[in-house]
Specification:
- By secondary structure, this protein is α/β, with parallel strands linked by helices.
- It has helices at 27-37, 57-64, 81-91, 108-111, 123-136, 155-164, 187-196, 210-220, 229-233, 237-245, 255-269, 276-290, 299-305, 310-321; strands spanning 15-18, 41-43, 47-48, 72-77, 98-103, 140-148, 169-176, 201-204, 224-227.
- An eight-stranded parallel barrel has the order 1-2-4-5-6-7-8-9, surrounded by four helices.
- The protein folds into two domains: 15-245, Aldolase class I (TIM Barrel), CATH 3.20.20; 255-353, no CATH class.
- The chain binds flavin mononucleotide.
- Residues 19-22, 24, 45-46, 75, 102, 104-105, 144, 173, 181, 204-207, 227-230, 343, 349, 351 line the site of flavin mononucleotide (FMN).
Length: 356
């Protein structure tokens, strides 16, 4: 029998997890987030499983060199059972907290191969994969799923499969694959999963602030919450969750502190030898989210998107963050200020594929 889930930072409070995000949640990003207040759990970007795959080295680094003190679950995406088992055998040689199966990625090039969100069309296939995984994983086995592909017609059946597979933790993103990252999140479906699952459930989708996270946990009855894009915008969010869940006043970062976050992100995520222009362009992927809380008109976003050099980029930060450094960074994204377009495009999941 697998042991219990790893101890949370604040026992008795709802759990928090940083959502896996391809091209975002690498070792550097996990370290940056942890420096502002770690989540209880990390999940890696997905390891791709196919006939020629080997666990990607840069993703392995987020496990092997992780010095945040928090457990890391290794996520994989695939459907071929022998190759999944071969990958799991390799991953279990690393200090993983558990193995997580991705049943949600909505990128067409992914789901067309019947992996990730594509598997939600085939509950029997999910049952076979989970049964093989359960037999191969002596420790914790977890699943991250959406509520369906086109609609939620198989949701009940998949919950049955998940329940009978003996998994240890389930995360439910309350959207279908067709919804991508837009539109309403079906917290009622997440609540249903939480009520019927035999394991703890994490609610996922649009936890925009600690206040919302608390509301989502209350509304769904979940054991905790998994937060993705809003932790890119606001890396203090896990600390704020703990403060709020514990009844303490929440830290309210100022724009001056956000300027510090951008600088830390720039430094920590810059690989050796990476050309400045390339890195500036990559930084825009994070800043698209950060900018949602800087000013209500999106002026920082427009300014930052024109940056080519490091000095352009920090010039934009200085103009918009240091003119009133004590001003509060918005708790919620400003309405209408959109982090375009990467995560909302049909190629979702690939920040790299986004025009900067
Ligand atoms: C850029 C990006 C990359 C993502 N990559 C993954 C991934 O590798 N595995 C996964 O299960 N979900 C992935 N997701 C989905 C997130 O884990 C999460 O389910 C989704 O963003 C909804 O949560 P949020 O509203 O808190 O962001 C990704 C999302 C984004 C925006």
């Amino acid at each position: 029998m697998p042991g219990p889930l790893p101890a949370p930072i604040a026992p008795g409070q709802p759990l928090t997890a940083l959502a896996p995000m391809q091209d975002v949640t690498d070792l550097a990003f996990m370290r940056v987030v942890a420096s502002y207040g770690a989540p209880d759990y990390f999940f890696t970007e997905f390891f791709r499983v196919h006939a020629q795959s080997r666990p990607e080295r840069h993703i392995l680094r987020s496990i092997d060199e992780n010095d945040t003190g928090r457990p890391v679950f290794a996520q994989l995406i695939g459907e071929d059972i022998p190759h999944i088992l071969r990958t799991v055998e390799e991953l279990l040689r690393h200090p993983v907290a558990g193995i997580d199966l991705n049943l949600g990625c909505p990128a067409p090039k992914v789901y067309k191969k019947n992996v990730g969100g594509g598997l939600l069309r085939d509950p029997d296939r999910i049952a076979s994969i989970l049964s093989a995984l359960r037999a191969a994983v002596p420790g914790l086995l977890t699943v991250k799923m959406r509520i369906g592909f086109e609609d939620d017609q198989h949701f009940e059946r998949i919950l049955d499969v998940v329940n009978s597979s003996g998994i240890d933790l389930l995360t439910v993103h309350g959207r279908t694959v067709r919804d991508l990252y837009r539109g309403r999140v079906r917290y009622d479906r997440i609540a249903h999963a939480a009520a019927s699952a035999r394991c703890p459930v994490l609610a996922n989708g649009n936890a925009t602030s600690a206040r919302r996270a608390e509301g989502i946990v209350r509304e769904t009855g979940c054991a905790g919450v998994m937060i993705g894009r809003h932790a890119i915008r606001n890396p203090w969010i896990f600390r704020q969750c703990r403060e709020r869940f514990g009844g303490a006043p929440e830290h309210r970062p100022t724009l001056g502190e956000v300027r510090g976050y951008v600088e830390r992100l720039y430094r920590e995520t810059k690989g050796e030898g990476v050309p400045e222009r390339y890195h500036v362009s990559r930084m825009k992927k994070y800043l698209n989210f950060v900018g949602q809380g800087v000013d209500p008109r999106g002026d920082f976003l427009r300014d930052m998107r024109r940056a080519v050099t490091e000095s352009d980029l920090f010039g934009a930060c200085d103009r918009h963050m240091l003119s009133s450094p004590q001003a509060e960074f918005s708790e919620e994204p400003y309405p209408g200020v959109v982090a375009r377009p990467n995560c909302e495009s049909p190629d979702a999941c690939h920040l790299e594929s986004a025009p900067a």
